[in-house]
Design brief:
The protein is mostly beta strands and about 325 residues long. Strand 11 and strand 12 form a beta hairpin. The longest helix is centred in the first third of the chain and has 22 residues.
Length: about 325
């Protein structure tokens, strides 16, 4: 019986991966290339590690905050070059919560004025909310407030707000958040909110601000899990596009104000699943791009799936000009 089940799983995996391969044109476009030693973190004894957020510091290398499924919490990994990573510690989890929370995951971390700010998902059985914590060293965190800072209260959010992405806009003196919503585990659109202090947030009145383009087959089902970077004259978004619930790829878009009139990159998707039976042959998710001008490159981290595990990989863009 076990042999028959194993054979079925192998055959099913092959069919699913082949089906995915038949639906995409290529693994990379727009000048991106997957790192030859992927995955860089997770898999094996570590299991699923996903939804990364990376901070680069010229003095001490890179810090990666990520969800570690097997440990039900948020982990910190460190790297000197952005390519070789080691898990350092669990810095926030269900056990360390001073109050009853659901699963703690999906962090975004920024450093402002010597303080680290984290917004993370409190994922309970029937609802997902966003909470807030601060740290002076990026390792030991203090949760702020008894209540979530963002909760699902709009009909389109459907009981879930998660996968937040936050930047500090120095010019406007505002925290700006893009978040996913629409379903507890698989959100289907992206909303926007602002805050002066990181705790009290005002949602944009015309949410969602970014939705699937039904004319693009690769993202026809839904969009989610974005990262937004403010540039000199616009906002650049990296996002997940879903062809269907099982097949996901990564694309780019831009907007003058980060809210309206989003324009897609004409070579989307920029990252797609790998060859059959490789570590990311089913789908690629949750991008996080880091400019590295000292080495004249961009590093784009993402989690890939083949079967059940989701390790972290990286794609590299040589040169700082993304042609977009």
């Amino acid at each position: 019986m076990k042999k028959k089940l194993l054979l079925f799983m192998v055959l099913f995996s092959g069919i699913t991966a082949a089906n995915c391969q038949n639906r995409i044109n290529k693994e990379c476009s727009g000048g991106w290339k997957k790192y030859e030693n992927n995955p860089v973190l997770g898999g094996g004894n570590f299991g699923t590690i996903y939804d990364v957020n990376v901070l680069k510091n010229d003095d001490d290398g890179y810090k990666m905050y990520c969800s570690w499924l097997d440990r039900n919490g948020i982990a910190l990994a460190e790297s000197k070059d952005g390519l070789k990573w080691s898990l350092s510690m669990i810095c926030l989890n269900d056990v360390t919560a001073p109050r009853a929370e659901g699963h703690v995951n999906r962090p975004v971390v920024i450093e402002k004025d010597g303080i680290y700010h984290m917004w993370y998902c409190d994922q309970a059985p029937f609802q997902s909310k966003i909470r807030y914590a601060v740290s002076s060293d990026g390792k030991n965190w203090e949760k702020k407030g008894d209540d979530p800072v963002l909760s699902p209260d709009a009909s389109w959010e459907n009981g879930a707000v998660l996968c937040s992405q936050v930047i500090w806009d120095e010019q406007e003196q505002l925290f700006k958040m893009w978040y996913s919503a629409g379903n507890k585990f698989d959100p289907d659109a992206i909303g926007y909110a602002t805050s002066k202090d990181g705790m009290s947030w005002a949602k944009y009145k015309n949410n969602p601000v970014f939705t699937a383009d039904r004319q693009n087959k690769w993202e026809q089902a839904k969009v989610a899990g974005c990262q937004v970077i403010k540039r000199q004259s616009d906002y650049l978004m990296f996002y997940i596009g879903y062809m269907d619930s099982d097949h996901a790829q990564i694309g780019m878009a831009r907007s003058k104000d980060g809210i309206t009139n989003w324009e897609r990159f004409n070579e989307n998707p920029i990252i797609g699943p790998g060859a059959i039976s490789t570590w990311d042959s089913y789908a690629v998710y949750k991008p996080y791009a880091v400019p590295d001008p000292a080495n004249n490159r961009w590093l784009l981290y993402y989690n890939g799936r083949c079967g059940w595990d989701e390790p972290i990989g990286v794609a590299i863009h040589k040169g700082m000009d993304l042609r977009f």
